[in-house]
Amino acid sequence: MNLESKTSFTALLLILLTFCGSIFSASAETDGIPVTTKSFKAKELLLQGRNANELGDFLKAQKLCKQAIKEDPHFAHAYFMLAYSSNSTQEFKENLEMAEQHAHHCSEAEQLLIKIGLSYFNATLAYRLDLAKQLVELLPKSPRAWIYRSFIQTENNDIDKARQSLKKAIALDEEFHYGYQQLGFSYLNLKPNDFGKAVQNMREAVKLVPESTQAYINLGDAWRGNAKLKMARQNYSKAIEKDPENALAYLKRAHSNVFLDDIEKARTDYQKAVELASEITQSAYSNYKAFTHIHEGKPMEAFDELKVVLEKIDQLNLTQGQKQGRNIFTLHNMIRICVHNKQYDQAEECLVKYAKVVKERMAAIQSERFALNQEANIELHRIYFLAHKGDFNQAHAKCTAVKKIYTELENENLMENYYGILAYVYFKENKFDDAIASYQKSDMNDIFNKYYLAMAYEQTGDKEKARELLKEVADFNFNNVEYALLRKQALKKIKSL
């Protein structure tokens, strides 16, 4: 039950960047999405920004897009690209609104892209799916148009269709490295997983852009999914060799060291990542460094370290929207640690702070749909807290409120969050059959849901299903606070079944 997975807009942006990358092309309209500007220099800057985005350098992409806008203040596509390289929900929305203001200067395809971006604030998933369909009908030979459609299909849980769209993009341009990377991420992150195909596609990307540090990082991630941790570490080390100043490569190598149970090496790499990180990523990397204490069985030491991280965020040279996103991420992790370890007074303090920051962001964004989604997110955290304490009447009442919000948003896929939290309430009530039925409707890409579904199966006597799920949990090898809290429990439970 990663509560940020489908309800946090910041998390959504990360998914967009992971699966979609850039959506621009220097090609003619029949081959790619057009770039409309009268300034040759502005176009060149944008295309360089696109390249930086696709190679994972979002800060460089931002800088180049801003330069492109300076050359052509009416450059809608540059505002759009800047939105998708931004560091906060507020910046994302503001730049999309600037793109919309200048949309009359650009092509129909570019206008569709702007509408897709804005639809996260003002329209339904069904509307977004229709826009993506229009895009590929308008530009059937554009690989990036098909990639955009694949993302929206993924959002709609049409994973097979999404992968077919990615394969279509690759067929249209077999040297399009980002198409392979996106397909690799799909096999790596989404069920049904195929970790072998994830490695295969990431290797193809490395062949096409052997100079790319990010390509080696992505290949390392694929090996991590295969539970080949030494191979993962080897590829992260290659990325470091190519760019010794790449903070993300050190972060990822630290993750692999954690799961190889080499905590001291992990801490060294995490510290290096924090030192090299930009201010925009520094606090997030510090969160992962704090998790090493959880893996050592000292969760409240992690909490104490995160308190320091939280205090430092306000001192960073960031916009208010950027600070809000980093505060929300850190507070989420602090809440999970406290509740899991029955430190309810501290959890309550963090919940109050979390709700306050989320509501400040809601006020800044000024979108009814966004606000509803964030209200649900606050309630999900509160339900987890209430269920863990045993206050089941309040927990069920809030589950009903969450269901009502998701119904109003007209997005059936968000209901997976509702079923996941409802299942957890049932589990804590010892209503294991009800828990199983609800978990089966939840997001099974979520490691928290998978772990507690396994526990529910064990309680009903189905040890085979429990063992199968726990094996998947134990081999997850991707670092978040939920996994840090559950990994050793899963490994221990496998031995006892």
Write up what this structure looks like.
It contains 26 helices and no strands. With 497 residues, it is mainly alpha-helical. The model is unreliable at 1-30 (pLDDT under 50).
In short:
The protein is mainly α.
> Which spans have pLDDT < 50 for at least 5 consecutive residues?
1-30
Structural class: mainly alpha
List the total number of helices.
Answer: 26
Compute the gyration radius: what is it? 22 Å
Mean pLDDT: 92
The outline comes out as globular
Number of E-state strands: 0
State the end-to-end distance. Answer: 23 Å
Please outline the helices and strands.
Elements: H1 9-20, H2 40-54, H3 58-71, H4 76-83, H5 89-101, H6 108-122, H7 125-138, H8 143-155, H9 159-172, H10 177-189, H11 195-208, H12 213-225, H13 229-242, H14 247-259, H15 263-276, H16 279-295, H17 299-313, H18 320-340, H19 344-365, H20 368-389, H21 392-409, H22 415-428, H23 432-439, H24 447-459, H25 463-474, H26 481-496
Helix pairs in contact: 2-3, 3-4, 4-5, 5-6, 6-7, 7-8, 8-9, 9-10, 10-11, 10-12, 11-12, 12-13, 12-14, 13-14, 14-15, 15-16, 16-17, 16-18, 16-26, 17-18, 18-19, 18-20, 19-20, 20-21, 20-22, 21-22, 22-23, 22-24, 23-24, 24-25, 25-26
